[in-house]
Amino acid sequence: MDIPLIFEKSRPGRRGVRFLSPESLDGFQIEEHLPRELIRTTPLGLPEVAENDVVRHYTELSTLNYGVDTGFYPLGSCTMKYNPKVNDWAASLPGFADVHPLQPDTTVQGLLKLLQSLEDGLKEISGMDAVSLQPAAGAHGELTGILMIKAYLRDQGEERTTILVPDSAHGTNPATAAMAGFEVRVVPSNARGGVDVDALRNMVDHTTAGLMLTNPNTLGLFEEDILTIADIVHQAGGLLYYDGANANAIMGRVRPGDMGFDVVHLNLHKTFSTPHGGGGPGSGPVGVTRRLEPYIPYPRLRQGDDGLYWDYTPGKSIGKVRSYFGNVGVLVRAYAYLRSHGQEGLKAVSETAVLNANYLSKRLADHYRTPYDRTVKHEFVLSLTGQKSRGARALDVAKRIIDYGFYPPTVYFPLVVDEALMVEPTETESKETLDRFVEAMETIDREIDQQPEVLHEAPHHTVVRRFDEAEAARHPILTWQQLTGEES
Amino acid sequence: MSIPENLKYTREHEWMSPDGRVGVTAYASDALGDVVFVELPEVGASVEAGDAIGVIESVKSVSDLYSPAGGRVAKVNQALADHPELINEDPYGDGWIFELEDAEVGDLMSADDYAKHTEGD
Amino acid sequence: MRYIPHTPDEYQAMMDTLGIQSVDELFEDIPEKARLARPLNLEDALNEMQLSQHLMRLSSENINVNEVPSFLGGGYYDRYVPAAVGALAFRGEFVTSYTPYQAELSQGTLAAIFEFQSMIQSLTGTYAAQASMYDGASAVGEAALLSLGQLRRRNQVVALRGMHPDSLKVVETYVNARGSSLLVADSLDDLEKKVGDQTAAVLAQYPDMLGQVTLAQKAIELAHQVGALAVVASDPVALALLKPPGEMGADIVVGEGQPLGNHLNYGGPTFGYFAVQKALVRKIPGRLVGVAQDIEGRRGFVLTLQAREQHIRREKATSNICSNHSLNALMATIYMALVGSSGLREVALSSAQMAHYLERRLGELGLVREPSPASPFLYEFAMRVPGDVDQLNRFLLERGILGGFHLGRFHDAWQGLWQLAVTERRTQEDCDRLVEEVKAWISR
């Protein structure tokens, strides 16, 4: 079956939901109000379908998707944990969802209190002195944070030009640094999977603006030398940026501020369990230490005599990184998550996430190579070089996992590990789910020797199978119009 | 992996023919995987050896294309616009990328040296 | 704990497998000096019932636009969201999935994004659109960056003043980061003076903050005269009536997508859209979905042209954007499918009809529309108020109306200007009430 498109269900003259009475428009002619050359003459090109067509089409599409609600989703680095339904319900309350961003502050005091409490909670968890809720996503938080570092250094009379990034970093780190106008230098990893401290020592100099670090890193390993790393960067006059992608591992155990970080972003769509929504929306609040606070995006939330209000004084702020205040609907969910857990709950989240990862890693280690013989945090990386030499690549194993009813782990990342498969079980998966996954992985490993073609051709039971991605990229078809040859 | 004797090579895996034609080696095209797009240099552009003057994209990777020598870009392979896969299929032939004229050829590797260079990887 | 399934026995069994006595042992690689030696100082946990009561109370402390008529706009509009939008978009398979990297398990999201791209392309009159941005303002920012990346020897972008101030602020943040600058032109004449051989892009909003629709065409021409790219930001609903910017020659068309089936959410999450002409397709920031065939020849969808993106290109990527606003774009897609071409046109027309009614009635009270009483507008306009706008708004709020927005809070030259937006949700009765109260305020 071809994957269906709503345009194919369109029939001229068919109408979907109607919430206006067309007769009420009688007597209003747009031609009387707009110059003729500005009036649209081209059809809008939207499908003409009944409400039932729409409901069935998107219901069908939803069944072609796999979410955390469907099953185990051990996608490394993405923290695909259970997303509580009560949080979604909360975000849809009219006092949160149906509030206009230009409403007077006095009319949104409940919401502002919520945002203030969330800021306070995030400060405590990250060990920072001030938080901005404005950034819309992790990468957006990175940009905000790096721009604050730049503004701070500039105010100190320093035009530093380089940001250091480990070779195991997420792609957003170097992309962010470049976007903020910095040159990127890559710090190598050592044999234990951490930052090569000696190399770092040799790399820092008067041009070093900062180091961006994920801790635990993308290999799921805690940077044991973090205090030394922080010293090296600080002594060179640079600042330390914490990429919070992996904060699910450390809540209540250690705080970025106590490790020496100056700027932190947290991915609320990971650690705080707001749903990923097929790629977003996320939310990437940024926390900073006192000396960087003046550079936070504005407006800032402040307490006045008549309640909370937005302070639009720019001061030394880096400015704005998006419209209005942030992804409030996501922030409401994160607040609900925070309040559901409290300190003990969050600590248990991290402890269980780490326990699950170590348990799963240990059980898989009989058949799959774990390149670093260490305790991991909330995720771990397998290196499928052994499988590759027997004829199945990491991608083949990942695709075969689909046939066993699981979403595959992240493949080929981080780049520093050959044939990487990066597994993050999260704390909301039970022991029996992990055990079932282990069984599937062991079966797949046997299949490599017994019937390798089963892997090469996997997945077998999905609505579609492997795609010709090369052809798709060589001659991209990006719209219905291009697909049907009606390209203008 | 074939390494024609009559060509010169760079460390970045470009080849150059005596008449100024430039492409990437079979080793490089294999490492890139299925090439999906080539950003070609502009005809007429003056380049220096080592300049990044184009980009080769595959499905899951991207790499800069460096000029092996100085000179002026005389021609580019327009066939790559519709058929970037030529770089995979025939890297030393129909998959050529551009031609330099008045090339100032510096220190390039021989086929033997290049073979040793790639063995090291 | 709330969402952790482990029983005490299972905890024990897992620790036995690892040969540990306590989970503390799993955290021993954290340097002792850095460890948190005390509990986090957070409020006590609430159970689900307590939590829901707490949140309902916080929610009820806000005035929402269902309780009082609102005339606020500025890119975010109180439009009707059909019930089917939420019912479909909030299916767990959509909400709880990740970015569709594994195409075989993500055809739902991928097909919907492909539909979204098609609808936006068609609305904007461009060649292609990507999968969504964070919001309208960051979409303008990314458009400015794309332009500077294309025209590498140029280091300025020039915007017309009528662009949403938040968009201008974001553009400024983004372009300053790479050492370029933003100039703001107060008029077309001023724009003509400000553009030149350093201009990488001209940015115009259509309709703009004052409701003007007549400036974009000229701005596009001025951009092209100096070899710059033309970027137009549009409210997508307005494009149901207005000539699409792509047809006017804009190279990049962006906008805030909230009016398409998204709740106001106090400004987020909504989504931005980003569409381009053919020459720029391989430079578009963010995710892009294309058609592909699987090994059995079936048509499906994949993320494509990924070599543009940060996870492959890293420091050389077009943008650092990774997360998009897929779920919000899905809501917009479902909304556009539900209302169709005729429905979207009716939404825009009905808003315009009531807006013109309100404008006429307010004009009768002595409020004067700017920049000129004769300039055409759709459903949002600005009027000069005889007196203190903030005071007027407070007066209205006391009487249960969220009046217009005082534009002077955004820009000094706009002091005394009252921005009013009228959507299909505003009845003639709402408008009449507003007019009566304004009349009462004037004659107080």
Could you give a short description of this structure?
By secondary structure, chain A is α/β, with parallel strands linked by helices. Chain A has 16 helices and twelve strands. In chain A, helix 2 (85-91) packs antiparallel against helix 10 (328-364), helix 5 (138-155) crosses helix 6 and helix 10 (328-364) packs across helix 13 (431-450).
Number of extended strands of chain B:
9
Strand order, biggest sheet of chain A? 1-7-6-5-4-2-3
Strands of the widest sheet of chain B, in order across it, are 1-2-3-9-8-5
Helix content of chain B: 10-25%
Question: What is the radius of gyration of chain B?
Answer: 13 Å
Distance between the termini of chain A: 29 Å
Assembly level: heterotrimer
Number of helices of chain A: 16
Mean pLDDT of chain B: 92
* Tally of contiguous helical segments of chain B: 4
Structural class of chain B: alpha+beta
Rg for CA atoms of chain A: 25 Å
| Share of residues in strands of chain A | 5-15%
Give the termini distance of chain B in whole angstroms: 13 Å
Tell the overall outline of chain B.
Answer: globular
Task: Characterize the biggest β-sheet of chain B.
Answer: 6 strands, antiparallel
Structural class of chain A: alpha/beta
Q: Outline of chain A, from the CA principal axes?
A: globular
Q: Describe the biggest sheet of chain A?
A: 7 strands, mixed
Question: Your description of this structure?
Answer:
The complex is a heterotrimer of chains A (488), B (121) and C (444). Chain A has 488 residues and is of the alpha/beta class. Chain A contains 16 helices and 12 strands. A 7-stranded mixed sheet of chain A has the order 1-7-6-5-4-2-3, with helices on both faces. In chain A, strands 10-12-11 form a 3-stranded antiparallel sheet, covered by helices on one side. Chain A has a two-stranded antiparallel ribbon with strand order 8-9. With 121 residues, chain B is an alpha+beta fold. Chain B has 4 helices and 9 strands, in the order E-E-E-H-E-E-E-E-E-H-H-E-H. A 6-stranded antiparallel sheet of chain B has the order 1-2-3-9-8-5. Chain B is globular and about 35 Å long. Chains in contact: A-B, A-C, B-C. The interface between A and C is large, with 209 and 207 residues.
